[in-house]
């Protein structure tokens, strides 16, 4: 057989092996698949796949791949002394596994379940059939208390807490002879050159850093967690900042939960730590929705909202993406995201609200863009949250965040704004939230030219907010929306409870 120009011929007398397939679980501790492989008598290979169809999909960006790559390098340094290495294969899953199976007889594949987008769901279905045909057992462990195949949330919370309180898996590795394996699908040079770079604005990758962030959070940074959570500047130090580590699995939710819970017993700010623990559960609550229905990625979960038309205005969408809407806080958030890959929850919600309410654009016009910018992109949170903030779920209160009010409330002196919008450096504090409100004389007074580099606002924020509010709330009375609400509440919420919002 030939796959991608590579001849795959089954070797005779193939040696039996097991395989650990790493996905969003790039770590060495609290790792069930690695433990299964280590405890089994057969030798094993560890693989990570850069699947061309997935890495070129519009939700993926170079920063995600760089984070994965550097996390892997860190692990390879640790496990190399045991004769182990994570092999990165640049191939579709079926190609990679077919090749390995032609060289060795794979007995078991150990991985975590993936609550992924439609593309990975379809890939897993095909792969499952391939494994069955080839006599390979695929053991998929449950990830972070997300349950596969449930129809409602009865007993979900209790089961989640039981999972979080259970002992961590303590992984050990025994020294072994490295398995000879020549990878026919190495990372192409052009891509590798990009992967080895790591922009200094991003949080450093790898499990050691996950624990460093957690450590400084429980010791000091978390003191003002609750007070500063909505502030774009202060939240950068007072929030946990472990989201990229959770999303790429440098740390499991259980590891984070137990670490912070233990610290809270002796902490001088246990309330903040308790709030953090609650959010870990929210994380899994949202991913559970996506596990049950991954069409959240590109269809309104409340099908009744597909009836609400949003005439596309590409120039407005572009201004939003470029951070040139004329609303300083919106633009500062977008440019900060571009440079660092992170902003806090409230500002994420405001960006979506601005796109979907003030610009009145379909949520799908921006969901992949933010996915690519978020270093912590996790589809199971991202798409349900995006739809919730866009007001198309029918079951959540619609929040329309006025960007000027958010700016006055959460960045009153404009320090965050000025950090990311150098062109507003000289604007005095009283105008920083609405530079367009300055008169010609005031502009002259502060030495700003009439044709300042900063653009005028692209919408009338008050009128646009009113328009969106009327449209969205009006549509909630639609019979289809109401019918869909009942279905969503029965499947995705616990006893009809509302979803959590910060
Ligand atoms: C439109 C939109 C898209 C989002 N997309 C993502 C995403 O792709 N990946 C992602 O990790 N988070 C996403 N979030 C949720 C939230 O903004 C981030 O989890 C949080 O800002 C991460 O920072 P932190 O680790 O400092 O969080 P902390 O406040 O320290 O919270 C600890 C952990 O709890 C979880 N968490 C916190 N808030 C929420 C929340 N509201 N919903 C679900 N889980 C939460 C995260 O795992 C987080 O790391 C999104 C929010 C919105 C509004």
TrEMBL record:
Residue span(s) of domain Photolyase/cryptochrome alpha/beta: 16-146
The organism's place on the tree of life at top rank: Bacteria
A Pfam cross-reference name: FAD_binding_7
Cofactor(s) the protein needs: (6R)-5,10-methylene-5,6,7,8-tetrahydrofolate; FAD
Residues holding FAD? 225, 237-243, 276
Q: Does the keyword Flavoprotein apply?
A: yes
Query: How, per the record, is the cofactor bound?
Result: Binds 1 FAD per subunit.
Q: Which UniProt keywords apply?
A: Chromophore, FAD, Flavoprotein
Q: Name one GO biological process term.
A: response to stress
Please verify whether the record's keywords include DNA damage: no
What Gene Ontology molecular-function terms does this entry list? deoxyribodipyrimidine photo-lyase activity; DNA binding; FAD binding
Q: Which InterPro entries match?
A: Crypto/Photolyase_FAD-like_sf, Crypto/Photolyase_N_sf, Cryptochr/Photolyase_FAD-bd, Cryptochrome/DNA_photolyase_1, DNA_photolyase_1_CS_C, DNA_photolyase_N, Rossmann-like_a/b/a_fold
Q: Hey, which family's this protein in? A: Belongs to the DNA photolyase family.
Give the protein name, as stated in the record.
Cryptochrome
């Amino acid at each position: 057989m030939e796959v991608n120009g590579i001849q795959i011929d089954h070797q005779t007398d193939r040696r039996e092996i097991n395989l650990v397939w790493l996905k969003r679980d790039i770590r060495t501790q609290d790792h069930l698949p690695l433990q299964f492989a280590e405890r089994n008598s057969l030798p094993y290979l560890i693989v990570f796949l850069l699947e061309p169809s997935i890495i070129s999909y519009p939700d993926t960006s170079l920063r995600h791949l760089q984070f994965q790559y550097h996390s892997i390098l860190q692990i390879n340094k640790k496990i190399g002394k045991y004769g182990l290495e994570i092999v990165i294969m640049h191939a579709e899953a079926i190609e990679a596994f077919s090749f390995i199976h032609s060289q060795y007889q794979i007995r078991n594949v150990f991985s975590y379940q993936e609550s992924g987008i439609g593309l990975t769901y379809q890939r897993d279905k095909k792969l499952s059939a391939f494994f069955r045909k080839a006599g390979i057992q695929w053991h998929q462990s449950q990830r972070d208390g997300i349950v596969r195949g449930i129809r409602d949330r009865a007993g979900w919370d209790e089961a989640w807490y039981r999972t979080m309180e259970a002992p961590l898996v303590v992984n050990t590795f025994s020294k072994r002879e490295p398995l000879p394996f020549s990878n026919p699908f190495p990372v192409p040079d052009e891509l590798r050159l990009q992967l080895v770079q790591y922009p200094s604005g991003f949080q450093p990758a790898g499990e050691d850093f996950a624990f460093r962030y957690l450590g400084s959070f429980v010791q000091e940074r978390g003191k003002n967690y609750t007070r500063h959570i909505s502030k774009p500047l202060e939240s950068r130090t007072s929030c946990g900042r472990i989201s990229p580590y959770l999303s790429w699995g440098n740390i499991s939710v259980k590891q984070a939960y137990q670490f912070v819970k233990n610290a809270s017993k002796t902490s001088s700010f246990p309330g903040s730590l308790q709030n953090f623990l609650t959010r870990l559960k929210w994380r899994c609550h949202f991913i559970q929705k996506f596990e049950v229905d991954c069409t959240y990625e590109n269809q309104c979960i409340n099908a009744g909202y597909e009836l609400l038309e949003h005439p596309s205005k590409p120039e407005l969408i572009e201004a939003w993406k470029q951070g040139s809407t004329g609303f300083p806080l919106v633009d500062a958030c977008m440019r900060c995201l571009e440079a660092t890959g992170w902003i806090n929850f409230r500002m994420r919600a405001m960006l979506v609200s601005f796109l979907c309410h003030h610009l009145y654009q379909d949520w799908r016009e921006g969901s992949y863009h933010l996915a690519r910018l978020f270093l912590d992109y996790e589809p199971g949170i991202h798409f349900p949250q995006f739809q919730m903030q866009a007001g198309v779920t029918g079951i959540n209160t619609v929040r329309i965040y006025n960007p000027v009010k958010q700016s006055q409330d959460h960045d009153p002196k404009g320090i965050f704004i000025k950090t990311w919008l150098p062109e507003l450096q000289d604007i005095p504090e009283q105008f920083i939230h609405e530079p367009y409100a300055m008169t010609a004389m005031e502009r002259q007074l502060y030495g700003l030219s009439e044709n300042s580099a900063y653009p005028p606002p692209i919408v009338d924020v008050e009128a646009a907010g009113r328009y969106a509010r009327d449209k969205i709330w009006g549509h909630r009375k639609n019979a289809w929306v109401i019918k869909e609400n009942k279905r969503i509440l029965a499947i995705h919420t616990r006893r009809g409870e509302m979803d959590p919002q910060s």
